[in-house]
Give the backbone structure.
Amino acid sequence: MADTILKPEELQPAADLAKKALEQLDRVLLGRKELHRLVLIGILSKGHVLFEGLPGLGKTALVRTIGQILKLDFKRIQFTPDLMPSDILGSHILQQTDSGKREMVFQPGPVFTNILLADEINRASPKTQSALLETMQENSVTLMGTTRQLPLPFFVLASQNPIELEGTYPLPEAQLDRFLFRLLFDNASTDVLEQIISGRRRGELPAPTWQMDREQLETLFQTMNRIYLPRPVARYIARLVSATHPGSEEASEAVTRYVSYGASPRAAIAIAEASRAHALVSGRPTVGFEDVKTVAEPVLNHRLLLNYQARFDRMSPSRLVQELLGKLDETGLKLPGDVELQPA
Amino acid sequence: MSSHTGALKSFAKRLTLLLMVRGIVAWTTVWFFLWGVVVLAVRFSGLLKGKWLALGLLGCLPLALIAVIREWRRREEFSKIRAAYDELNRCGGVLMAEEVSDMSQWQAQLPAAAVPVLHWRNGRAFGLLGISAVFAAAILLLPDRLTILKAQHPLEIGKLVGELKAEVQTLKDEKILEEKKADETQKQLAQMQEKSSGLDPSKTWEALDHIKETDADLAKQAAEEALNKMTSLAAAQTLASAMQEASDDGMSNDTATRAAQDLASMLKSAKLEDGLLKGNIPKELLDQLNGLKKEDLQKLLGAIQFNKNSLNGTLGKLANLKLIDAKTLAQCQNAGTCTNCNALAAYLATCTNACNLASLCYGKGGPGGGGGTGPMTWQAKSSEENLKFNENALPPSAHLADAQFVGVSKSAPELSANDLAADHGALASAQASGGSANSQVILPQHRQAIQRFFKRDAQ
């Protein structure tokens, strides 16, 4: 490990690439710099992202823009209650060959792409939602005993609408756990809205002025792999995830009170990967505690299963995670209660 | 060494030092409280004096050493301290990575090195230390009289012992108390003053009361002896003075001889050589009492007066120490005082053969020259006519305060005609057949109510 830590000259090209990608995102989509940063972190972590927000906030536009910037194949599926798994994964159809024989030929579904936008994913039936389980975890599709690898990289960027919940099927925990982030779309500010309506005719998005080729994307992934996760930070991530479980040693009072089930080990892996990506985007070869704090909330906010008491008290998972981050000592220094460390 | 490396080492040192100081303060506080309690217990039990106990405060020094060693052993891993430094200086894990690799190339991109601030909210710790120190100091400086509970607790008998010592010394000086006994008593008093305990004062008080009582008894005996001697000396002085005066007026030889014999008898009965008197009558004067000349009588009178003065002095000392009361003192001083010495001298001068000096009550001679042998004349009894108050000697009364109510007699007690004195005394209700002296006074109060009560029981 010691000889693999990136040198400044090794890290700089990747950091520049990430910076350029972010600049393009910020240029095309106005007023969501933090969200863009997290989306890029999600992609660098090879994770799937769940967007949650009202209609018209730019979820689809964001995904489409990412596809354009990364020059990746992009497909969109509008999830509806009558959508079938075969509509996503593909199906075998009887086809006559040139030789006149008839055979079942696999017709790939829209999942065979690099970036899949699953729009309003919660409107599909659980059966159809579950069709994505294997693709999201294994990056493959198995049909009629044959497993087919999806093109890499493969990302699912799903969206769901928090209103109009009639006739929807909330995502099961197993499905939710496969998403690296759940990102919430807020309303655009007045200034941003003014910029949009004054600068963009009918809201049409400008085309990206720079695109990342596949080789550059691969460079980013390789650099990501060499971001060093120090042992104290890894320990902090482990303690943080453990603390989401009620009854654990470092669980806060709020966790004990409101959480039924805490985050899975997959969450710890997700935090570590996302932290690495955040360090890369920040231009650092090592992961710091601040990286973990930045990505912990979107990683954990859909992985905590809260009880009814939390509903009564209007406690959200995000607030719980923030409370946990505030209380948990990062370094594990067991200092007495009356001794505090402060920055100089 | 890069600036961050130096700052990190400085931070680690400061943190360890701070925790050591904190540990020392905590341990010292506990020690002061603990030692204060121990000192309190030891001082109250009277086992040790405060100055030796003060050395126990030095016990905080080895404890401080222990605290330092303990904090050194418990010090945090350097990696954790480095992680804390990394986080506080926003180094993004670069310094933490130094654990596995040389990160000097990245140091230039890090923020400026600064040792993080260690903030110890020490008000409570130092407050407790101060309280514990004041507690320990207060316990150590507490006066012995407030702490010693056991044998060493002195009983405040200094004044009484001083008075008794003065009494014993006076009794010794006046030869009322034997010298050996007086010395023993003095030693006994000194021991009591030193070893008397406030926990068990009754023994001391009993011993002191005994000595006081003994002194008072001896003083009383001495006063009685002095009274007798003063009476004899006064009588002898009166007779000698009368003899001196009568010798000028022609007292007969026979009368002079008889008077001299009486004088010798009086001086002998005074027992001047024994007991209280320090002085004495010169032996040549006692041997020549029959033929004493006027000058010798003068010497004799001087010697008697000296002895009287000596007795008066002794009695005065006893009175000053309140071993005898003023009445006894006055009685002794006025014993045998001659009120009509001239009449006795005249009697001696005129008396011839029929003088009966042995039965003379000198100084009580009646008016008209009757002398001491003159019969006392009594006039007719005084009339009680028109007197409003007639004195009657009443029998001693029973004290109601000491009485115990045991019942009510159904009728008035029957009195025997010859036993009026017992009628109201403690034996008022005693029955002849009972023979018990433990009788009770029966009060006539609520008699009827009690009678009704017993009647109801009977029904």
